[in-house]
C-alpha cells in the first residue's frame, strides 16, 4: 500500500516544531515503551502519537533529538534472542522513513546526548503523566518518566520545558496527507458498516458483529480498529463504553455500533444504529430526536465558534427534544444530562480523542466528531449518531455523510 506520508511530512513537522519552540534548549522526545500483557508477553505495540508525528517510526524505546540545526535518532539495536523473536532493526529503513540521516544505536547515541546534556541548563520534552491516571483508572506508559529520570541522572540541575502545548497546536490543524488518511479510514468504516447491515439477519451475537467489523477493516486495507469497538444491543447501548460485545442480539431492539478503522495511525470514529426489523414508533421517535440535535450541531460548527458556547447551545436544544419525548419536564443541566451524559464533539486525528484546546475558537483544518445521543435504560433504548467532520471556511465537511443513520 502506498503511504500518504513521505519523509517530507515528518521533516516539515520537525521544522514547524523548531519554529514554534523559540528556545535554544535541545529537544529530546521518547517513543513509547512496550507494556507487559502477562508473564513475558507484551501488548501489541502502539507508538506515542507525538513521536510518530515527528518521525513516522514505530520502534519502541527510541529517542528523537533536535538540537538547533542538528537532529538524530537513538534506536535500541535488537541482538541475540530478541532479534530472533522480533527481527533485526533496520537503521537504513528508519532513516528513509523519518528523513533523519543520523541514526545511532543506544551506546553511540547516548554517549553523544550525554555530552550535550551535561552542558545544558534546559531540555525541551513532553511532561510525563502520573504513573496512574485516576480519572481514567489506567496506568500510563512509563517511557517519558524513564527519559526524565535518565536525564536527571546525567545532570541533576537541568530544567524540563514542556512541549505539549506546542505539539497540540501543530497537530490540531490537519494537513492534506492527514485528511486523506482519515477520509480513507472513514470510507473503510462506512463500507464495513454496510456489510454488517446486509448480513445482520444472519448474525446471532454481538461478537459475530465485532468479528465482521475486524475482517472488513483489515480486508479493505486498514491496520485494524482505531479503538476497541462498541457493539451494543438494546440495554447495552445505554452503557456509553460497553466493550463486552458478548450478548445475544434481539431482533426487536436497536443495535448500536461505535467503531472506526485505523489507517496509518489515523482514526475514524463513527456511530450508527442498526435494525433487523422496522424500528418501533418509540425507537424511531428517539432516533429522529437525535437526528435533529445532530443537524443543529452541524448548523453551528464553523471557524470562530467556541466549543463551550457550542456545547451550551446543544444542551439547550437537546433539552427541548427530551421534553418532547416526555423524558423531562424542565430543561436544566441535571435533567438533560440524565439522558445525554456526554459532550457533542471531540477532536479526532492520530488519537481517537485527539489533542486540541477546547478554550480556543475553532479553525479551518480541525477535524471533530459530532455525536449526540439519548440513552433510556428503562426502555432498553440507546441511540448515538456520530459523524467525522472537517471544519472549513465554507462550513462543515462531513466525511461520513453518505452513511444512513439507521442501517
Query: What is the C-alpha radius of gyration, as a whole number of Å?
Result: 23 Å
If you average the pLDDT, what whole number results?
Answer: 95
Q: How many separate helices?
A: 12
| Number of E strands | 21
The main β sheet shows up as: 4 strands, mixed
- Classified by CATH, the class of the largest domain is Alpha Beta
Q: Kindly, what is the distance between the CA atoms of the first and last residues, rounded to a whole number of angstroms?
A: 30 Å
- What kind of oligomer do you see? single chain
Q: Do you know the CATH architecture of the largest domain? A: Alpha-Beta Complex
Q: Class by helix and strand content?
A: alpha+beta
Helix content: 25-40%
Strand order of the largest sheet: 1-4-5-6
Count of structural domains: 2
Shape: globular
- Show unreliable segments: none
The CATH superfamily of the largest domain appears as Creatinase/methionine aminopeptidase superfamily
Note the beta-strand portion.
15-25%
Amino acid at each position: 500500500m502506498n503511504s500518504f506520508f513521505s519523509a517530507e511530512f515528518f521533516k516539515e513537522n520537525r521544522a514547524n516544531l523548531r519554529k514554534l519552540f523559540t528556545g535554544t534548549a535541545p529537544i529530546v522526545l521518547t517513543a513509547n515503551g512496550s507494556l507487559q500483557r502477562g508473564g513475558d508477553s507484551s501488548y501489541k505495540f502502539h507508538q506515542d502519537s507525538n513521536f510518530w508525528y515527528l518521525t513516522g517510526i514505530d520502534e519502541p524505546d527510541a529517542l528523537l533529538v533536535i538540537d538547533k540545526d542538528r537532529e538524530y535518532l537513538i534506536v535500541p539495536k535488537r541482538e541475540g534472542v530478541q532479534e530472533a523473536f522480533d527481527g533485526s532493526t533496520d537503521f537504513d529503513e528508519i532513516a528513509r522513513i523519518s528523513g533523519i540521516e543520523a541514526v545511532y544505536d543506544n551506546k553511540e547515541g547516548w554517549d553523544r546526548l550525554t555530552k550535550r546534556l551535561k552542558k545544558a541548563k534546559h531540555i525541551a520534552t513532553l511532561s510525563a503523566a502520573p504513573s496512574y491516571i485516576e480519572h481514567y483508572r489506567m496506568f500510563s506508559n512509563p517511557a517519558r518518566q524513564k527519559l526524565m529520570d535518565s536525564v536527571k541522572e546525567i545532570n541533576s540541575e537541568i530544567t524540563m520545558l514542556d512541549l505539549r502545548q506546542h505539539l497540540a497546536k501543530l497537530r490540531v490543524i490537519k494537513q492534506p496527507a492527514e485528511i486523506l488518511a482519515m477520509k480513507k479510514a472513514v470510507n473503510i468504516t462506512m463500507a464495513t458498516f454496510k456489510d454488517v447491515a446486509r448480513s445482520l439477519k444472519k448474525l446471532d451475537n454481538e461478537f459475530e458483529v465485532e468479528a465482521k467489523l475486524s475482517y472488513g477493516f483489515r480486508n479493505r486495507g486498514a491496520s485494524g480498529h482505531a479503538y476497541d469497538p462498541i457493539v451494543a444491543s438494546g440495554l447495552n447501548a445505554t452503557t456509553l463504553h460497553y466493550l463486552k460485545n458478548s450478548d445475544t442480539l434481539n431482533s426487536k431492539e436497536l443495535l448500536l455500533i461505535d467503531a472506526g478503522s485505523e489507517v496509518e495511525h489515523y482514526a475514524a470514529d463513527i456511530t450508527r444504529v442498526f435494525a433487523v426489523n422496522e424500528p418501533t414508533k418509540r425507537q424511531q421517535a428517539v432516533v429522529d430526536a437525535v437526528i435533529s440535535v445532530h443537524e443543529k450541531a452541524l448548523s453551528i460548527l464553523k471557524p470562530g465558534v467556541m466549543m463551550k458556547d457550542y456545547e451550551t447551545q446543544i444542551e439547550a436544544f437537546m433539552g427541548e427534544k427530551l421534553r418532547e419525548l416526555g423524558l423531562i419536564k424542565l430543561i436544566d443541566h441535571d435533567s438533560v444530562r440524565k439522558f445525554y451524559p456526554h459532550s457533542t464533539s471531540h477532536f479526532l486525528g492520530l488519537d481517537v480523542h485527539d489533542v486540541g484546546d477546547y478554550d480556543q475558537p475553532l479553525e479551518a483544518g480541525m477535524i471533530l466528531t459530532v455525536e449526540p445521543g439519548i440513552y433510556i435504560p428503562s426502555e432498553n433504548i440507546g441511540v448515538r449518531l456520530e459523524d467525522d467532520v472537517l471544519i472549513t471556511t465554507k462550513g462543515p465537511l462531513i466525511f461520513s455523510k453518505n452513511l444512513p443513520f439507521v442501517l
